[in-house]
Amino acid sequence: MSPADSTAAEQPVRGRPRSEAVERAIIEGVMKLLEEGVSLAEISIERIARTAGVGKAAIYRRWSGKEELFVDVLRTAEPDDLELPGTSMRDDLIVLLESLRRRGLVNRSSAILHNVQVQMKSSPKIWAAYHNTVIAPRRRLGIEVLRRGQRNGELRLDVDVDLVNDLFVGPMLVRAVLRPDADLPEYLPERIVDTLLAGLRPVSTPVP
Amino acid sequence: MSPADSTAAEQPVRGRPRSEAVERAIIEGVMKLLEEGVSLAEISIERIARTAGVGKAAIYRRWSGKEELFVDVLRTAEPDDLELPGTSMRDDLIVLLESLRRRGLVNRSSAILHNVQVQMKSSPKIWAAYHNTVIAPRRRLGIEVLRRGQRNGELRLDVDVDLVNDLFVGPMLVRAVLRPDADLPEYLPERIVDTLLAGLRPVSTPVP
Amino acid sequence: MSPADSTAAEQPVRGRPRSEAVERAIIEGVMKLLEEGVSLAEISIERIARTAGVGKAAIYRRWSGKEELFVDVLRTAEPDDLELPGTSMRDDLIVLLESLRRRGLVNRSSAILHNVQVQMKSSPKIWAAYHNTVIAPRRRLGIEVLRRGQRNGELRLDVDVDLVNDLFVGPMLVRAVLRPDADLPEYLPERIVDTLLAGLRPVSTPVP
Amino acid sequence: MSPADSTAAEQPVRGRPRSEAVERAIIEGVMKLLEEGVSLAEISIERIARTAGVGKAAIYRRWSGKEELFVDVLRTAEPDDLELPGTSMRDDLIVLLESLRRRGLVNRSSAILHNVQVQMKSSPKIWAAYHNTVIAPRRRLGIEVLRRGQRNGELRLDVDVDLVNDLFVGPMLVRAVLRPDADLPEYLPERIVDTLLAGLRPVSTPVP
DNA sequence: GCCTAACCGAGACGGTACGTCACGTCTTTTA
DNA sequence: TAAAAGACGTGACGTACCGTCTCGGTTAGGC
User: Fold this and answer.
1) What are phi and psi of D30, to 5 degrees?
2) Which residues of chain C have pLDDT under 70?
3) How far is CA B173 from CA B144, B168, D139, in A?
4) Which of A79, B99, B192, D181 is buried most, with the most CB atoms less than 10 Å from its CB?
5) Which of D163, D171, D200 is facing C199, going by the closest CB pair?
6) Chain B residue nearest residue A193, CA to CA
7) Are A196 and B199 within 8 A, CB to CB?
């Protein structure tokens, strides 16, 4: 989690060690600003330092810029893991979509973070970092669920699981990116999953 | 298309009229910068003016800021209309998705514009403008196609067309936002449409 | 008085003749601004045009810049002539100094104009024009009075009239430039003239 | 001499202290521009910063505007003190006038500074600052010399020393403000002092 | 108990861009 | 052709941040 995790050599620390309190104060300072409704563009390093009661150098000592810092802010805000029921593919998918709806990419109650993610898309380097640590694992989890479904006979074998994963995730992303106003009951994960599964079951039976 | 379209009164022009050439030079200057790979964050009003060979005031006279300008840049780059074959709902949907894939929200060849859209999400006012003039019309078109499909017997009557529209648009958005690397044949519009329609036809027949 | 006085050829006017009303409106606009306490530096050509209800071009058609315009403003504000009593050198000098005190270089009631003059010193070209048309004639008048005094036996013959003129003008200038606060009765022209004449009379008699 | 002289409390310095080198570079940058004949109006803060190799903020950190800066430029150029012979009032006055002629208000060799002073008159606040630190002390010195003269019997007791001081200073100011061309031997301080003293001695004796 | 090195908050540093304003010129319609 | 109006390129205004660099002072481990 620490920004200096990757350094392997672990040379003996000389001089005063970095204060973890400073680290926390900075990240929480960014959070506080975001929660106050301060636009991403309005958040400057100087303002972060001011809010956190910290010198600018303390920030630059840890992150090379605003974007790198934001990656860690997002990582801190991310849910660490996701408990899947495992009773059926359908149940797992519903939980996955529900988690998308509630937080992470499609966080509605704290829509603040969404903008951070969206902003990061402009910086390929940052986006890659965020993609690797947050988005890709989640995608892998979804695909794994679908593969298990295929083995269990819940999902046709002739479909591309990558594509099917996108079919499930897509509506949630549309809501988050294009239709932030829409929060209708029609968009309940259960309904989406069932609608899609209607055409994806191995033996395609008429809908009752 | 002009930034001052909305003013209805059409009062008699006094003084020297604004040069259309300047207008074009500014918008094309932004395009040029974007094509040169200049990051969105690196594009300043001063740089635009320098590139377009124009004074800063000429820009501020037309747009109140960078974001407003970008809206018009996007509008200029947008396809003006979309020719639907009208032979069937399936064909229309394929054309719609194909247009999404090729340009607009999911522009691959000039992926530059995507970042502009994504950036705009940070500014609610700008996003609303862009949403109203570009995204909403496209969505209305999709929903109209679906409604026609319901009347023609190509789409079940008990589904929510809003949701179904999102089901179709979703995968393309996932690719654009989360998986810019993915350009596999599996994501051909034809394939997506057929996969989804499998579970959405009134009389659900097995896929051939 | 008109700015185009110097043009001698008097070629037949072609097209619409220049409006004298515009000319007056511009000069009076500047006066109005000065009287309202607007600092010289705050008076821009654009503001003058706005105040006078006139286009900028109408100003540039007549004067090549702000300074040239100010010369004419000062010329308009200047007293046209000065009535000397002629009864004696002493009386003439008192009138001269009194006129200095009341207006022109040492204008107290409308001290505004003083700043215009002072500002003009920065522009050699303008200063020359102002010097030739306003200051030099006044100086010539003073020297003439002194020469007459020498012929009448009121002033010693062995003094340099240029220097003596400066002796008389000097105190008023000190007051105007260095001591704008000082307006004491001690500085009455009568007193200055008598104090100086005490040492300048041909037969030096004790002061009564 | 420093712009922050007045702060008495001497609170412990926090952060990086301001560089004296920057201070010097700015003032000398202005001097350099003035010596190159750049008009006062052409000297912008941006140009000063460019010339001094300094950021604009470094200037605004020290002075609130161009005028405040000019006050310090003048103060730096001013002679710090003036050595009076003290042998007699006449000798002291000659030295005073000579110093006026050579530098300060009536600096001929570097006439550049004169325009700065003259320009400052437009800004009352600035003028007051300059008056208090430069002009007033010099005036006090002159008046002190005159008072000593009265006690020594060199000056009549019934004259107003303020007025008499102006009589002495006046001619030098006339030359500086109105007659920059005049540098004749007649204007030697010795001559002016003697001419004026002729009528101001306690026992007024005929001039030989 | 020192020494040394890296940390800390603070803030100055040379830059760049902001959005506004005035410059002097140019281009329109109207008289 | 002059008139008012106002757009044009240019460039200065004063402010805010950028990322770097001193300051004096603090906080640890190694001597």
Assistant:
1) -60, -45
2) 1-15, 78-80, 102-124, 180-186, 202-208
3) 20, 10, 81
4) B192
5) D200
6) B167
7) yes
CA distance C15 to chain D (A): 37
pLDDT at B105 over 60: no
The percent of chain B in helix, strand and coil, each rounded to the nearest 5, is 60, 0, 40
**CA(B183)–C1'(F18) in Å?**
38
Give A4-30 pLDDT, tens digit per residue.
444 444 566 788 899 999 999 999 999
Query: Chain C residue with minimal CA distance to D39?
Result: C122
- For residue A109, give the DSSP letter: T
Residue of D nearest to C138 (CA): D178
**Closest by Cα among D34, D195, D33, D125 to C164:** D195
Q: Which pair of structure tokens corresponds to residue B103?
A: 């340009």
* Separation between Cα atoms, residue A128 and residue C191, nearest integer Å: 90
List the Cα angle A185/A188/A190 in 5-degree steps: 135
Sole residue written with tokens 């050579």: D102
Tokens describing residue A42: 């309005």
Q: Look up residue A37 and give its two tokens.
A: 């409704």
Q: What pLDDT shows up at residue A5?
A: 45
Nearest residue to nucleotide F30, by CA–C1' distance, is A14
**Which residue numbers in chain D have pLDDT < 70?**
1-11, 79-80, 102-124, 180-186, 202-208
> Cβ of B9: how many Cβ atoms within 10 Å?
5
As a whole number, mean pLDDT of residues B25-39 equals 89
Q: How far apart are CA D131 and CA D137, in angstroms?
A: 9
**Protein-covered nucleotides on strand E (Cβ within 7 A):** 4-31
Contacts of C49 (CB under 8 A, 6+ apart): C55, C56, C58, C59
Q: Chains D/C: 3 or more C-beta pairs closer than 8 A? A: yes
Rounded Cα gap, residues C122 and C40, in angstroms? 13
Q: Tell me the average pLDDT across B56-79.
A: 88
Choose, out of D114, D195, D196, D205, the residue to mutate when testing the contact with C (most C CBs < 10 Å).
D195
What is d(CA D130, CA D172) in angstroms, rounded to the nearest whole number? 19
Residue lying closest to nucleotide E6, CA to C1': A15
Q: How far apart, in Å, do the first and last CA atoms of chain C sit?
A: 48
- Which of D162, D182, D196 is the closest to C199 by Cβ? D196
* Minimum Cα–Cα distance from B122: chain A residue: A115
- The pair phi, psi for residue D182, each rounded to 5°, is -80, 115
The predicted pLDDT at position B46 comes to: 96
Q: Is the distance from CB of B120 to CB of B127 less than 8 angstroms?
A: yes
**pLDDT of residue A2 exceeding 50:** no
Q: Which of the residues D97, D100, D160, D174 would you substitute to probe the C interface, choosing the one with the greatest number of C C-beta atoms within 10 Å? A: D174
Write out the two tokens for C74.
Answer: 């000062």
Distance of C47 CA from F2 C1′ (whole Å): 21
- In this predicted model, which residue has the larger pLDDT, A74 or B51? B51
What pTM, to 2 d.p., does this model score? 0.77
| C171, C192 contact by CB (below 8 A) | yes
C1' nearest to CA of A55: which nucleotide? E9
Domains of chain B listed by start with CATH number = 18-65 (1.10.10.60), 78-200 (1.10.357.10)
A chain contacts of residue B132, beta-carbon cutoff 8 Å: none
| Best residue in C140, C178, C192 for a mutation probing chain D (most D CBs within 10 Å) | C178
